Amino acid sequence: MKVYDLLDKQGRVFAFEVNKLMLSRRRLSAIVSRIPRVRMIRTPGLSSAVDEFCEFEIDGQRFVAWEPWGDSSRYWIGPKSKEWCPQVGIVRDFFASHKRFF
Question: Is residue 76 part of a domain?
Answer without folding.
Answer: yes
